[in-house]
## 1
Amino acid sequence: MIEPKILKGFRDSLPRQEIARRRLTGKVERIFRLFGFVPIDTPAIEYAEVLLGKGGGETDKQMYRFRDNGERDVALRFDLTVPLARYVAANQQSLCFPFKRYHIAKVWRGEKPQKGRFREFYQCDFDIIGSDNAASDAEILILIHTCLTEMGIGSFRVRVSHRGILSALLESLGIAEKNADVLRIIDKLGKIGSSGVEEALIEAGISSAAAHNIMAFVSSDNGTFPNAISMLREKFGDADFICRLEEIHSILESVGIADEFILDMSITRGLDYYTGLVFETSFLDYPSVGSICSGGRYNNLTGLYTRDSLPGVGSCIGLDRLLAALEEIKSPVTNNTSAADVMVARTESLAPIAEKTALTLRRLGIKTDMYVADRNMGRQYAYAESNGIKYVITSYVDGKYQIKNTETRESSEYTDLAEFAAAATLGAATGQTERQQTDKR
Amino acid sequence: MIEPKILKGFRDSLPRQEIARRRLTGKVERIFRLFGFVPIDTPAIEYAEVLLGKGGGETDKQMYRFRDNGERDVALRFDLTVPLARYVAANQQSLCFPFKRYHIAKVWRGEKPQKGRFREFYQCDFDIIGSDNAASDAEILILIHTCLTEMGIGSFRVRVSHRGILSALLESLGIAEKNADVLRIIDKLGKIGSSGVEEALIEAGISSAAAHNIMAFVSSDNGTFPNAISMLREKFGDADFICRLEEIHSILESVGIADEFILDMSITRGLDYYTGLVFETSFLDYPSVGSICSGGRYNNLTGLYTRDSLPGVGSCIGLDRLLAALEEIKSPVTNNTSAADVMVARTESLAPIAEKTALTLRRLGIKTDMYVADRNMGRQYAYAESNGIKYVITSYVDGKYQIKNTETRESSEYTDLAEFAAAATLGAATGQTERQQTDKR
């Protein structure tokens, strides 16, 4: 006999987890599609050379890389960004630009498994490729605002910044060449605190005066978005990045959602491929949740694979983190993960019409399970309860269905299944209510 | 620069293909859920030992097998059946039996790529684990009937048989030990024809009289399901498999769908793990499509991983084949793959309200793309047409939207976007119509 074990860092998804995950991805997909974003997919396995790109990063060591049966040097994708760059370069002729795509798929990283870190997990990316202007930046931010609103986790803020700000600051301090180091260090602010950042900056060879200056700048509270813009303008004049931020803000105002956006100079995003707008999100009532949507503008994504310049702006949703947050607040997205609404029991009186009863309910749009094993009623109830099934049809006598509510343990009698469905607000009716609730924005 | 090439046998999924694929899987998932089946997922990478099982099959050579960074002998799953067996054994305590699950996921096989054969493809499996009776067999068949009906590819037949039939026949001919060979050979009937099968049987060491006898038996037309049962009973008496088939048939009759099921002794399914019911499907108007749903009963699936006996019955849907068929008949599932219903153009008059216009439409449930690049109207129209977007909002003057239909090239004027949505039967209204059409069974 073989032990049915799985690899460390990998997970089986149990039905209730998988129902919640699919419901969440269904919800965000619906929003992506409403915004005219289209889905794509790429191979899980690619040439290692293609996935490595210029290489040298942390990810190289974590990549699942091996020789296939034809001795080709291949690897499993470790993110959806590199495959996107390769995909856009390879399919340039077949795509319409600006290309708005989303991609929800698994990626693999052989990193040390630890709490909350897995070797196989989902990423959910969305990007606009092929335009560099405030309209595309704002479109991504509006999409994020819609997603976060729909999640129902309460008030949130999208903290926005621009790579140009820090560049201008470092230039004014005469240390422009330290840009990449400073970005990476400031990105750790949440983890190591402002004194930690200041120390790290000094360790990176920045004078203590400059380090102090940088920290004071990025952690200053500049009030509203327009106030922060005024401050930047005073300090840096009429720089391009200030006009871009102003334009983005005015679009957000035009759709009445500017209040949830703040300009936060401490947002840098560690990765060095961002070139303009950068952002993170936070839930006001659940600060521990961390950023659910982070991202920004990158203007040389496809440079490795094609000579055409294809600027982009995009973001990703942390599905696992979001699922955990939704579970914590007992959201309907993760909460009602019942396998079905109704179960038709396997009893003598029901036997001749069991399948017909189930099919009638299914045709009414009601999720209906038919108990198919030969077990006593105790076992059948236990099954219904474990599966979160609220109603059990227990018998059919003299043209009447006996239907038991597993929550209240009360029974009712019905001659007509449609009548029961209406009384229990199940099926098409409820289905629509659920949809409308989902649709409400 | 790196050439953005992908591995042979792998595919990029372009937006229109991906939209169609997701719409199809959404459709079948909805049916699975209506039947009380729940989704699961398993790791793409598992211990090679676990995936190989007892091994020795064709699949071993095709497996993507390698050493991970920790020198573990691992492999990518090559089907969803072996992972199901491992999953059920590993999670037995957390699952409710009978366990009805579906699993739609990618699998990988390093076989020689050829037309229509890929090294990475989706499988879509659904099974009931934990009961061995006619009720579970019939439940799977009713589910398949519902799926095929919903596809709208016209009349179809589910061709059913039972492994017991051929066993009984071979026993009566005194060649019971040839069972596995005979199953495998008869499974090729569609490919090599009856004379080919007869030859192959003789090559396998069966006398020409017996071979002829077998062929005559499996290719005889026994009329209706009840007629075929009578024939079997005359020949083999009151065997268990006859009672099982009869019971299944009576359940199908009780729900009024027995007409689409025929008893066809030539259905064997090549794989040796089936132990009872076996079936395939065919579309009467599109015989070239082949079987979309095949499967059967296997009573020792988990035997390799646990001592508990867990009988099962299940099937899979050939998604790629089904997609091709739907495309051929220009089904709405694969046909309307537009990225959005409406595009808001980027023009001077619209600029101040473009995002607000888009958001209003999106809140009405209308898929709305906002053109974000700085290009002339010609390029913007081309974009809308390439993306299959029917309406383009081109200007906003004196409180009136000009809206162009890209199919008829006609323009209309609206002051109210909700009025336009109603006139164009878009959004919530249409959404519901589409849903109801989908719901109709």
## 2
Amino acid sequence: MSTYTAINLVKRPSGSIGPELFEVVEKTVPQLEDGQFLVKQTHMSLDPAMLGWMSPDTKSYIPPVELGDVMRSSGVGKVVESRNPDFAEGDQVMGMFGWQEYALSDGKGVNKVDSNLDPEMVLSVFALPGLTATQGLYGEGDPKPGETLVVSGAAGSVGSIVGQLAKADGLKVIGVVGSDEKADWIVNELGFDGAINYKTDDIGAKLNELAKDGIDLYFENTGGPIQHRVFERMNAHGRIVVCGMISDYTAKQPSAGPNWMNIIRKRLTIKGFTMPDHRHKTPQLLEKITPYVQKGQIKYRSHILEGLESAMTGLNLFFTGENKGKLIVKL
Amino acid sequence: MSTYTAINLVKRPSGSIGPELFEVVEKTVPQLEDGQFLVKQTHMSLDPAMLGWMSPDTKSYIPPVELGDVMRSSGVGKVVESRNPDFAEGDQVMGMFGWQEYALSDGKGVNKVDSNLDPEMVLSVFALPGLTATQGLYGEGDPKPGETLVVSGAAGSVGSIVGQLAKADGLKVIGVVGSDEKADWIVNELGFDGAINYKTDDIGAKLNELAKDGIDLYFENTGGPIQHRVFERMNAHGRIVVCGMISDYTAKQPSAGPNWMNIIRKRLTIKGFTMPDHRHKTPQLLEKITPYVQKGQIKYRSHILEGLESAMTGLNLFFTGENKGKLIVKL
């Protein structure tokens, strides 16, 4: 019997995230029952949301990964054996396959993907990042042409798509990033109107310069000091979409939020969202984003890690901000 | 020529609010032109919103009262002379008459009120407090029967109406107040399900006891430590309506808000609002609240101050929490 490699979560994170939280195991490739099929995963997505899935404190979100279970993740693969009439050998599929080389499925939550589509593009645009950007911007943010949008984590997988969608819709788009290289990429490659390097720029002064008319829409992916500087500059009736707080995910002491007085003075609306609530809208979200992709308005770049075990250290790149583009593990 | 007394704002508040900010002046009762009428004010409303009107930092809200101008306020009075066909001598009217015994009007923004209605009831229920409560609860908060609502400033003019409306709609209602007397009033007179005295109770422990199933809707009138304790206990898809932050109005150092991580985890919506944005909805808001009043579901109590000049010290009662009920100056 042939075996394959899987990685289980065996410890909850407290501070850093690395190989000490995981266990690499060998498993036996299972026999198929009727209705099942076997997927050989080719590309595995690493997403900031996974940091939440590893923490115990998520009772009102989706259940955390149980200790001893395969680490949860989405990925793309090929069907290599099937006893399910809807999935044939050779089909390219997308689903929550986890950190493992092979995954057994009954088809639930698995979608077929055109075999001509590059798996990197699937995971970078049509999977969680694109769905999240689309739901967050249109489902929560109510963007209007002519408005000014600021997005943090702007070179990240979600932020880069949010900014490009908004730019295509006629908003002024300012991105906050953590390196000059990323600033250059979002302005010169993606067409953002401006970029702020939060590590080196005076954030407030730069916002004053780039967002002269104030900020109508803030798409929050990171938290940190940016949050306060943007909050102070929100326009009346502004909206804030809270999608991620990467800077606080593993913080022992959560950072203080802004005082609420401005929520009244500016009549702000602040909305948090997570994608599991909107999974049923996947077809509509894909329908919304597809024309932008077809018109070439959504560029992406992926940061490829090689081999299953690279995932264990790869997650840390979200904290250091060293990833350039969508993090994907190639198996 | 006869004269009357008016009070002008002559200084911006910084910390406390008292007679040092105002100037009492004598004015000549003006001659009417065509289309004008003269109102003798009988009752004047003191509202927390006035603290905002006195501050210079309200550029995105409504304009502040100019220094040297009569202090802004709403009130009820009788038409004593009229050259306006829509307003007759003897009519009872409501409007923004300011801190003065007489007000000249062309009818703009002035509404006739049934002469049988007690002016105290008009100012306590059908004026700013009732309109604010109705817009905040229904226009922003989306209350649902069976949900748990917490309201701060629960014995205040807005909070007490919010709680009674929600209670009539089948929500569980918990009020936060600053004295045992107020706690007793909201539970035993208004029918709230529970009360917390934020000055003497362990707020967190008491919330755990009273809101066993968590909190779905928080109506924020005060800010302060209550905000954090409630925020931590919000349920998934909870809503927070931010109406007032009395504890921060004159603070030199604004208090820290809660960390935003829970906004994502719980998918919260936080909305600020102010009534000038909704002035055009006054007829609909009155239509909404009237049936509750007619069914006897809205009780109120007014705290009457005697004489125009009592307004200058009266505003401080909002900070000390010593007012019992809607603050009204009787002229």
